[in-house]
Automatic annotation (TrEMBL):
Domain 6-phosphogluconate dehydrogenase NADP-binding intervals: 2-159
Protein name: 3-hydroxyisobutyrate dehydrogenase
Domain of life: Bacteria
Keyword Metal-binding: no
Native source organism of the sequence: Faecalibacterium prausnitzii
Residues spanning the membrane: none
InterPro entries: 6-PGluconate_DH-like_C_sf (IPR008927), 6PGD_dom2 (IPR013328), 6PGDH_NADP-bd (IPR006115), HIBADH-like_NADP-bd (IPR029154), HIBADH-related (IPR015815), NAD(P)-bd_dom_sf (IPR036291)
């Protein structure tokens, strides 16, 4: 079974590399940035000149691109070479409604399609320990589970096409609200003379203990805002959440407050900074 991987960004690069290391057949790769393709080629992937060539040669086509419009463009481009016997897995974080539209388009060719967005960040991508939420028919999801297991260790099917993305958006919305809670309460603690380290230790003793603080407190203490997950990408996910909530007629005041913080960051030109730099926005400097 030949696998093709489109999109070799911060996450896609390591996800593709894990497939190359663990899969016993050819792995093709493509990205619009030649240096990224060259890097994966040095790891053992076979470079393709474009996504159409990749899709023609692959039995399984995996995409990991930034936005809804990018996913739509990928699948519209490769649509003429899709058909029975091919499976497409979009692992991008995009609007669920757009993913459902893509699924219908792809499945009309006879190919299978599923969404499989990931949670956790670059270190987990490198280690092959991502969490993966599957959306698609049960047969396709189960057939693709061994391939997803090259990249992640916690894999769960959430339902039909688009449902993996719904869960990813719910997950990220919860994390951004936890993040904002950390930002506000840590700022308050500091204003009253409590150090970041003592704050993190004290929080770990009680019900406020959380994965975000456990993983980020040292970087917050050191004011290390090296980008692993950009503020712009997080802002995109917040926007998707608010759109989805609107479609469902649900008021989400907590996430609306988070959106104000991210909007402020984007307006200040901080989109390329790491998402934990929201701490500076809440703290005020």
């Amino acid at each position: 079974m030949k696998i093709g991987f489109i999109g070799l960004g911060i996450m896609g690069e390591s996800m593709c590399e894990n497939i190359v290391k663990k899969h016993d057949d050819t792995v093709y790769c493509f990205d619009f940035i030649p240096a990224k393709v060259e890097l994966l080629a040095s790891k053992g992937a076979v470079p393709c000149k474009d996504s159409v060539e990749l899709a023609e040669k692959s039995d399984v086509i995996i995409s990991m691109v930034p936005k809804s419009e990018h996913s739509m463009s990928v699948y519209k481009t490769i649509l003429p070479v899709l058909g029975a016997g091919k499976t497409c897995i979009d692992m991008s974080t995009i609007d669920p409604s757009v993913s459902v539209e893509i699924s219908k388009m792809v499945k009309a060719t006879g190919a299978a399609f599923m969404d499989a967005p990931v949670v956790k960040s670059k270190p987990a991508a490198i280690a092959g320990k991502l969490g993966i939420y599957m959306g698609g028919d049960e047969a396709t999801c189960e057939a693709m589970r061994p391939i997803l297991a090259y990249m992640g260790e916690n894999i769960i099917r959430m339902g039909d096409n688009g449902k993996g993305l719904v869960m990813k958006i719910c997950h990220n919305a919860l994390v951004t609200q936890i993040q904002n809670g950390v930002n506000e309460t840590l700022s308050l603690a500091q204003l009253n003379g409590i150090s970041v380290e003592d704050y993190a230790t004290a929080i770990s003793y009680g019900g406020g203990q959380n994965f975000y603080l456990d993983g980020q407190w040292q970087k917050l203490r050191d004011e290390d805002y090296t980008t692993a997950f950009s503020l712009a990408n997080a802002a995109k996910d917040v926007g998707i959440c608010m759109n989805l909530a609107k479609e469902c007629g649900l008021d989400m005041p907590g996430e609306a407050n988070v959106k104000k913080v991210y909007d402020k960051g984007m307006e200040a030109g901080m989109g390329g900074d790491d998402w934990r730099s929201t701490f500076k926005l809440v703290r005020g400097h």
